[in-house]
């Protein structure tokens, strides 16, 4: 993954995780798998676990310890009201940025043709 992609993902990864949790609660490894299933194949598990610590500290998720067949209980993360509000703000910001960046891209393409 290129440096530019890595930098852009840093700013959006929290929103991506919140969006996945809005679909359904999940534990860390499951979140990593779902992110990779969406095409973000080079994101390290450690990156996701560090992000989960941050969203838990920011009180954007509720955490439930669920027994695991293999080892210690798993932390299952679910989006709470504060997380839902944060996700809504993320999508508003994302849509604004995407719309305005796309205009720049279209203008740039039109000038070259």
Structural write-up:
With 113 residues, this protein is α+β, with helices and mostly antiparallel strands. It contains 4 helices and 3 strands; from the N terminus they run αβααββα. The chain has helices at residues 3-23, 28-37, 45-57, 81-112, and strands at 26-27, 61-66, 74-79. It has a 3-stranded antiparallel β-sheet. Strand 2 and strand 3 form a beta hairpin. Helix 1 (3-23) crosses helix 4 (81-112) and helix 2 (28-37) crosses helix 3. The longest helix is centred in the last third of the chain and has 32 residues, at 81-112. The two termini are 30 Å apart.
Helix count equals: 4
Radius of gyration, in Å, reads 17 Å
Order of helices and strands: HEHHEEH
Largest sheet: 3 strands, antiparallel
Going across the major beta sheet, what is the strand order?
1-3-2
**Form type:** globular
Separation of termini? 30 Å
Count the E strands: 3
As a percent range, the share of strand residues is: 5-15%
Helix content: 55-70%
Oligomer: single chain
Chain-averaged pLDDT: 90
**Could you name the ranges where pLDDT drops below 50 across 5 or more consecutive residues?**
none
Structural class of the helices, strands and pairings? alpha+beta
Summarize the structure.
The chain is of the alpha+beta class and 113 residues long. The protein contains 4 helices and 3 strands.
SSE topology:
Elements (H helix, E strand, L loop, with lengths): L2 H21 L2 E2 H10 L7 H13 L3 E6 L7 E6 L1 H32 L1
Antiparallel strand pairs: 1-3, 2-3
Helix pairs in contact: 1-4, 2-3
């Amino acid at each position: 993954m290129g440096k530019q992609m890595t930098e852009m993902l840093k700013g959006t990864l929290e929103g991506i995780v919140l969006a996945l949790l809005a679909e359904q609660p999940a534990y860390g490894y499951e979140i990593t798998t779902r992110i990779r299933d969406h095409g973000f194949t080079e994101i390290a598990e450690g990156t996701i676990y560090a992000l989960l610590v941050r969203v838990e500290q920011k009180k954007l998720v509720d955490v439930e310890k669920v027994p695991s067949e293999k080892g210690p209980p798993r932390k299952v993360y679910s989006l709470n009201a504060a997380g839902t509000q944060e996700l809504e703000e993320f999508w508003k910001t994302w849509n604004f940025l995407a719309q305005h960046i796309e205009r720049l891209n279209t203008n740039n393409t039109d000038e070259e043709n």
